[in-house]
């Protein structure tokens, strides 16, 4: 078995330049779902990649949104792995903070810089390349694989729920590898067993008519002030949400608490993992991890009103808005949270503050660490890295993973290629070439062992 | 004397097209002091106009800012009138709210639309044209006139204080006509005896590093939230300022209160005067006027943080700022108010909120209604309109009038050409052609009677 492993490894090494070229080709294509830029071209590149593997490919546009790509390699094996990734990316602004253009990928000091390098084209391509490697080395794939490739994850995956509902019978699988995952500064695998939920909305205050001279400020209300006053009732200076009932459903389970306690992490690890050492609040490690991973937030993504160019303009603005995301932990229901927010604004006298929901959102998701599919991920990562992995109850971010765990009822987890300095959603997003290659190998190992493991609790390619 | 008056009047009528052409030529020139656009060209046009009158013209750039133009017509008369106006204008945004391009003046239904039409090129040109009319009709000017024409009023007149200090001996005069002033919907003159003071500043919250994925919001503070929380401590929902000591110096005098009580104005007048009927708070008339004219404010002119384009971006912004003006009533000292604001932020735990002062500002100004120069303005306006004028203690807005009243120690007031629908500082700024012409006539009458009035309490050209 060891020989097969070595063959897989050396195949990846020999093909690394070719693999990088395929990756870079996709990174060159913008695919910003917020604006629609380059989405169709990115989808075409990916469809070609899948077809080259021998996959049957279908695209779904039932909701009129960006295509969802379903690629299937049905090898008539006794087990099926689902792989969920997305090919859309976040907008690039602030563009002036990038040291190289976000859609002209550059490799500097072993890192590939580009928008989407880590979120999520790195994982997407690495998993396609893992399948390719296995087909080329073994002659056939030892497991059935289904790719669901989303084109709207960065705008809240609006088409995905309908897709999952409508094509449920096509989407059966024994486990699902989710986007994300990576390695920490010591090289340990970071495995994530869930994701937070999210809601995205705007609070808007409008006044009839246009902007006015600011001397009216004594007798005409200022929408910017109204928005500020409304926002200030939502949260206190310690970050605690003041909406009645907000935390009622946010009760953590013992398994998640236990995973946090078991994380072999010191403050230097957290600093490296977050790459934001000086910014993070001073808290004991455990408390910091609990707050980071197990607490819900309401965040201001953007706020605008009136004159914001250089110099002075004395104006009473005609409108103001704030863009906000609300991140949910397991058991919080998005609809209920929205209802509570609206009730809060009304009961505090802010009937003039409109709540525009840009994304009705989705709940959090969580898979138990006891699931065999998760235990295999832990085993595989030990072989690849030589170290115990870090198993997190969930990522700090969100994703519609509940569609897999709660609708399709498959165990679901992340095992991937990113690293703590990836700058996800930020300027200078990047990925380490070394981890990209290691991730391909790790994915190969997982796919090779999956069927014997779930059928007979045996992992033949991990014995040597 | 009546014949002379008629001659002046018919001269204005005959020349009205020519006068409009001169006005429109200046309106075509942008002169936005916030950006510097077109300032020099506008100054040149005005210098040419003054030279055509026979004025001696000097420009001052001692502070490196936009030129201050001093135009003098020394007729060796027994009295001197100062005229203060400014040739700079506010920025034009939001541009999409204009029904015609702001620097392509259009006359529609008797109104001239252009940025600067009312603030302040209308008054500036009307006063130059009044002098021109008198020279042409009478053969000589019956009073000495000094024009101070500012190029930075809309950015807080930063060069003006030094100019006034340095050239004090050149700037002697018996009274000063200030920018602004106009007619109400019934055609009554609106005379203003003062202006509020103003400070312009930014509150800024910066975080080290760039924008981050918003999932960090649980353990890294959000500058937008910090700014919102800081702002919310400054004002309550009723508009009351919560800064300790803010109102201590804002004690109104009896003369101002008396002027408010004497204003013959009903709610319909206020609505017409403000042109914002539906927006204004429901208050008894007197209370509304007091709040409008005699109360200080802190206004949010603009606020910005993070992602404000269309769609969704889940980001933790790296900075946030608010642009604010503070309007001061008589006796409030700008330096003291800034000190109180900084103390307030510190004592409320907002040491991370930087106060960047864009304009250290100036205090309010007020001239007594008992001043002979004011009483002449009242008399003249009665002849021109056939009605008692409305005499306001001050405009609702600001201007560095204190330089005239407190430094040069001249009585100072506004008597001009605007009207309540002028949309000052807003899209579709405009002026009525009828009032522009009436204002020229009113200014002529004032200049003709000034010397006999202040010397002998006689107004020969008002007797008939």
Short description:
Chain A is an alpha+beta fold and 464 residues long.
Characterise the protein shown here.
The structure is a homodimer of 464-residue chains. Chain A is α+β, with helices and mostly antiparallel strands and 464 residues long. Chain A has 2 domains: 2-195 and 365-462, Zn peptidases (Aminopeptidase), CATH 3.40.630; 197-250 and 295-362, 2-Layer Sandwich (Alpha-Beta Plaits), CATH 3.30.70. In chain A, 34% of the residues lie in helices and 21% in strands. Chain A is built from 13 helices and 20 strands. Chain A has helices at 2-14, 16-27, 39-53, 121-138, 160-166, 223-232, 254-262, 267-274, 285-294, 334-347, 372-385, 402-407, 433-456, and strands at 56-60, 68-73, 80-86, 106-108, 111-113, 144-150, 175-178, 182-183, 189-192, 194-195, 197-206, 212-213, 297-306, 315-316, 319-328, 354-362, 365-366, 390-392, 412-414, 430-432. In chain A, the strands form 6 sheets. The first copy, chain A, has a 6-stranded mixed sheet with strand order 1-2-6-3-7-19, covered by helices on one side. In chain A, strands 13-15-11-16 form a 4-stranded antiparallel sheet, with helices on one face. In chain A, strands 4-5-20 form a 3-stranded antiparallel sheet. The radius of gyration of chain A is 23 Å and the shape is globular. At the A-B interface, strand 12, helix 6, helix 9, strand 13 and strand 14 of A face strand 12, helix 6, helix 9, strand 13 and strand 14 of B. Strand 13 (297-306) of chain A pairs antiparallel with strand 13 of chain B.
């Amino acid at each position: 078995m060891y020989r097969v492993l070595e063959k897989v490894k050396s195949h990846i090494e020999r093909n690394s330049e070719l693999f990088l070229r395929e990756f870079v080709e996709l990174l060159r294509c913008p695919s910003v779902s917020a604006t629609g830029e380059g989405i169709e071209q990115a989808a075409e590149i990916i469809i070609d990649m899948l077809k080259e593997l021998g996959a049957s490919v279908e695209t779904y546009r039932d909701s009129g949104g960006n295509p969802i790509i379903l690629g299937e390699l049905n090898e008539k094996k006794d087990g099926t792995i689902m792989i969920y990734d997305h090919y859309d990316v976040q907008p690039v602004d602030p563009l002036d903070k990038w040291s190289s253009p976000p859609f002209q990928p550059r490799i500097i000091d072993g890192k590939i810089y580009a928008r989407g390098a880590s979120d999520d084209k790195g994982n997407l391509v690495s998993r396609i390349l893992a399948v390719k490697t296995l087909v080329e080395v073994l002659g056939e794939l030892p497991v059935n694989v289904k790719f669901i490739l989303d084109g709207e994850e960065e705008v809240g995956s609006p088409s995905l729920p309908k897709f999952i509902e409508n094509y449920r019978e096509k989407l059966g699988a024994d486990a699902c590898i989710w986007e994300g995952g990576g390695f920490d500064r010591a090289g340990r695998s970071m495995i994530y067993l869930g994701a937070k939920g999210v809601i995205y909305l705007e609070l808007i205050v409008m006044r009839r008519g246009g902007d006015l001279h600011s001397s009216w400020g004594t007798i005409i209300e200022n929408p910017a002030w109204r928005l500020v006053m409304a926002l200030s009732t939502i949260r206190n200076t310690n970050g605690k949400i003041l909406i009645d009932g907000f935390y009622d459903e946010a009760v953590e389970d013992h398994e998640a608490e236990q995973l946090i306690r078991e994380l072999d992490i010191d403050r230097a690890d957290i600093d490296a993992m977050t790459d934001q050492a000086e910014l993070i609040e001073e808290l004991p490690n455990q408390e910091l991890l609990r707050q980071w991973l197990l607490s819900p937030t309401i965040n201001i993504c953007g706020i605008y009103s009136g004159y914001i160019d250089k110099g002075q303009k004395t104006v009473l603005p005609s409108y103001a808005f704030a863009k906000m995301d609300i991140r949910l932990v397991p058991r919080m229901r998005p609809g209920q949270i929205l209802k509570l927010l609206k009730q809060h604004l009304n009961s505090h006298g802010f009937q003039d503050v409109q709540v525009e929901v840009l994304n009705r959102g989705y709940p959090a998701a969580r898979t138990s660490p006891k699931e065999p599919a998760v235990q295999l991920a832990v085993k595989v990562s030990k072989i690849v890295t030589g170290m115990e992995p870090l198993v997190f109850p969930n990522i700090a971010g969100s994703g519609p993973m509940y569609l897999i765990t709660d609708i399709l009822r498959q165990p679901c987890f992340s095992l991937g290629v990113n690293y703590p300095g990836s700058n996800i959603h930020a300027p200078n997003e990047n990925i380490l070439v070394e981890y990209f290659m290691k991730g391909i190998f790790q994915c190969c190992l997982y796919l090779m062992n999956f069927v014997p493991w779930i059928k007979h609790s045996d992992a033949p390619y991990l014995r040597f």
